Amino acid sequence: MRLLYFVVVLGFIFSSCLSDKKIPPNVVFFLVDDLGWKDITCYGSDFYQTPNIDKLAEEGVLFTDAYSACTVCSPSRASIMTGKYPARINCTDWIEGWKFPYAKLNVPEWTMFMDTSEYTMAEMFRYGGYETAHVGKWHLGEKEMYWPENHGFDINIAGWRKGAPNKNKKEGFNGYFSPYGNPRLKDGPDGEYLTERLAHDACQFIEQNKDKPFFLNFWFYNVHTPLQAKKEKVDKYKQLIDTTKLQQNPIYAAMVEHMDEAVGLVITKLKSEGLLHNTIIVFTSDNGGLIGKNYPKTNNYPLQSGKGDIYEGGIRVPAIITIPNAKRRGYVCDEPIISPDFYPTLVELTGLPIPYSAASSMDGRSLVPLLKGDSAFNRDAIFWHYQHYHIEGATPYSAVRKGEFKLIHLHEDNAYELYNIKNDIGETTNLVSVEKSKARELKLLLQSWKEQVEAQMGSDNPDYNPKKWNKR
């Protein structure tokens, strides 16, 4: 079946080349791990320094109300690759997830991998004649059969089962510093910094494939723990600490700068090879910033909470897109968007064909109207569903945002919260008993969506112990 489809795609490419001789655009997808909405200068940080990302925003569209599909990494990553909500593919927590045996609700069985039956974004590009490479974190399955090379990537650099750099003193692995202990990444010289190494490998891929269309999936391990950065950068931010600033962690700041420099190196390489003018660039994060209960990591203010929670700090993320021949440059868009939107957006921008079965089951909406400003963008609502517990505080929930309003359903106590996000971005005033009509509307909408995607629900836990519920 796929051989037949490959032949059809080749025919499509050949006929397209004969008809208009357009050069297909390259695609670079930057995904940063745990990067908060307020962790970029152009999003309001007054401590972290991100000149390369700020420049990217000047060249494209910056989305103020961008959301990750989940409050943790693996589901959001699967959502990006499939164009579907995590609840639809039943990949709803990070792999392997936290276990809370005494919590009030039992967590339902869920898929701890991205199924190889999914027609991924990478497969679309590969069958469309693109060279495809994944660089960096993957975290979408324990077994090798679920790693990038089995999901449409010709090259896999550093993508495997782990969701963070391998820091193991007993085995001599040093996290962000070589040796890495990563089966998909050869160790560099002692002291080599992972983010710099991955940027070098990404640039090498661009150089080797500059004469053909390519899809580069650069998914950072930064700024996920363990917090590690080069000493000179950490020392730089130690000197810049100001008690009037909300963000004050010098190691985290240094990791953000490492990431920004890596983005800059890739963009510089595209420019030097004469490819930047014909390259689509996507930059975003997999979930909100990690606050850190015991040791502060970042600060998401004015957003409430952070990674592992349904409030804005856990799901609102930076998102910037640049496209060739853009009419909109430096444009700020406040339309709510979410992780599964990127796949259909790239489908439309590249014009590549995908099977009807894949296209018809996508939850995402193409963002091209927002990027080009040439037609209306109509979306009813966006949704979340998380039937798990997280050490940062989350308990099972579902949520929906429609227009200015966001409704949260907390399942343990069957409680609802309603916020006007436009007027109350910090979610300080629960309007559920005031805006009764709106609450009723969103409750029905949320329930209907859960039924549509066949969202799994938790069940009462017979071992529930309120004194021990948060014990892992």
Explain what you see.
With 472 residues, the protein is an alpha/beta fold. Helix content is 29%, strand content 16%. It is built from 13 helices and 19 strands. It has helices spanning 2-20, 51-59, 73-82, 86-89, 121-127, 194-208, 231-238, 250-272, 312-315, 342-350, 356-360, 368-372, 436-453, and strands at 26-32, 61-63, 66-67, 105-106, 131-136, 155-157, 167-168, 173-174, 214-219, 279-285, 316-317, 319-322, 331-333, 337-338, 382-386, 397-402, 405-410, 415-420, 459-460. An 8-stranded mixed β-sheet has the order 6-5-9-1-10-12-2-13, sandwiched between helices. It has a 4-stranded antiparallel β-sheet with strand order 15-16-17-18, covered by helices on one side. β7 (167-168) and β8 (173-174) form a beta hairpin. α6 packs parallel to α8 (250-272). It is globular.
